[in-house]
Amino acid sequence: MTKHKIALIVGAHPDDCVLGAGGVSILLIRAGWRVIFLTMSDGELGGNPTVRISEENECARTLGVHVEYGHLPDGNITSVEAVKVLETKLTEHRPSLIFVHAPADSHKDHRIVSKSLQSAARRYSSILFYEGPSSVDFKPAMRIRLEACVRELKQQALLAHLSQSTRVRTTEWIEATGRYRAWPHFADDCCEAFVPLRMDIGLLLNPVSPVDTLSYVVPHVDQLALGTDMNLLSDLTSLEMLKDCPVSRKDHVLFFLGGLLSLTLAFVFSWSSYLVTA
Ligand SMILES: [Zn+2]
């Protein structure tokens, strides 16, 4: 059985995780990772908490991520309680990669969750800050390109948060911000952008399975999803849309070269066996 690497995405309220890191979550799942949303409150200040939790569950199901809750009080999250929840979840999951709100944010809960995570995860090697509509002075150093079908799936997942998308127009925000972050290198696409607190580059060189080796041939974070075998998705019915994603020309070249190498090795092995036995 494949041992999945785990990415933990931490957000103060339902919808924070998908807004800041929904796209990269989809791409990590495609690359064989297990992705967990940790939503620290039930979001009761933004609507009925039962509705908000069911929206977050539906959003997670659409993305193919697992979701867990801290059940801390919306609008009144304290660092003591947040660190306690985070330390418990970190011990339970041991994530290789963690995403959390950027520390500069006009929302108090976001600031406290970001700072608390930095404290709770002080021994973890890879932590990235994501942005949201209330981020302040966010200056990204890393970004990942979201091809059209990934973008559509992220939008579809966000639409599960019906109580918020009409109230704060979050769908417009991810489209506008994604376009802005893509400029100028991926001007026809959208990107999600991040600020690394620290990042273990070795993560890019240590793929989950041999199939995913192709994903890391190009050592660039923008190419994280290259070459993913779509058969990996066969048990993820929520990601059906991704089967229609076009495979890039670079993928075709890599798969062709891989096949050619396998055939050559098989021929050499057969020939040498023949010589030994002859
Ligand atoms: Zn929030």
UniProtKB/TrEMBL annotation:
UniProt xrefs under InterPro entries = GlcNAc_PI_deacetylase-related, LmbE-like_dom_sf
* Family label: Belongs to the PIGL family.
Q: What is this protein called?
A: N-acetylglucosaminylphosphatidylinositol deacetylase
Residue ranges spanning the membrane: these are: 253-274
EC number(s) reported in the record: 3.5.1.89
Q: Which UniProt keywords apply?
A: Membrane, Transmembrane, Transmembrane helix
A GO molecular function term, named singly, is: N-acetylglucosaminylphosphatidylinositol deacetylase activity
Instruction: Name the domain of life this protein comes from.
Output: Eukaryota
Record keywords: Transmembrane helix included?
yes
Query: To which species is this protein native?
Result: Patellaria atrata CBS 101060
